[in-house]
Structure formats: structure tokens, C-alpha cells
Task: inverse folding
């Protein structure tokens, strides 16, 4: 599992590579909303949860998939881009797990993702 407490994810950029990798994990009616990639790791937001993909090993053939259901979120915060600051952030607080933070570089549909989170968390 990704160590969210001690590891800061690199800035995530929109990329569909990981959307294809998590397809076997999706349940009936679940759809991919957006997918992001850092240097090696990735994050996919679906209509039901966040799936964080931690690529491990030298070759990258070993992967850890962490499922973070929206229903376990007790609070969240978003920071949108500004005029000079083009990065956005999403902080999620999960019961039992604690804080999970994602930083995004460039364009992303953060408001749409926040709406899905609110739908399940509220």
C-alpha cells in the first residue's frame, strides 16, 4: 500500500495510461472519471472511489493498487489553480487512514471530482 503519511506523491498530470490498468478492478456501474500519472505512479478517480497505483521494483512490473472509497471520506479540501500558481491540490481525510494529499499539475477536472466526493461523503 502507498504510504500516504510519509510519501508525498509527485505532481500528477492528466494521463489515461492507468485508466486501462485498473479496468479489471471496476465493479458494475463504476466508470472512470479521470486518470493521472506522476513519474511512475498513478491515480484514477472513478464514480465510486480513488484507485492509487504504486509501481514497484526496477522493472515496474509489480504494482500495488490501493482502493480509497469515497464513502470513507470524512472531510476534504480542494485548492484550485490561480493566475500564477498553475497547480491544484486535493486533500482527503479518511476515517482510520488519515490524510491523503494529491497535487496536480496542469489542467484537471478537480471540481467534477469534488462533486463526486461530496455526493458520496455527505
Result:
Amino acid at each position: 500500500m502507498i504510504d500516504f503519511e510519509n510519501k508525498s506523491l509527485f505532481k500528477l498530470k492528466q494521463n489515461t495510461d492507468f485508466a486501462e490498468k485498473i479496468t479489471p478492478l471496476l465493479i458494475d456501474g463504476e466508470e472512470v472519471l479521470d486518470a493521472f500519472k506522476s513519474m511512475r505512479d498513478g491515480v484514477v478517480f472513478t464514480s465510486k472511489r480513488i484507485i492509487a497505483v504504486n509501481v514497484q521494483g526496477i522493472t515496474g512490473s509489480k504494482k500495488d493498487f490501493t482502493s480509497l472509497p469515497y464513502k470513507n471520506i470524512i472531510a476534504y479540501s480542494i485548492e484550485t489553480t490561480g493566475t500564477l500558481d498553475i497547480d491544484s491540490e486535493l486533500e482527503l481525510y479518511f476515517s482510520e487512514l488519515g490524510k491523503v494529499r494529491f497535487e496536480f499539475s496542469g489542467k484537471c477536472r478537480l471540481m467534477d471530482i469534488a462533486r463526486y466526493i461530496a455526493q458520496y461523503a455527505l
In short: The beta strands are 13-14, 32-37, 42-46, 49-56, 62-69, 73-79, 87-94, 98-105. The chain has one domain: 13-121. The chain has a mean pLDDT of 86. The radius of gyration is 14 Å.
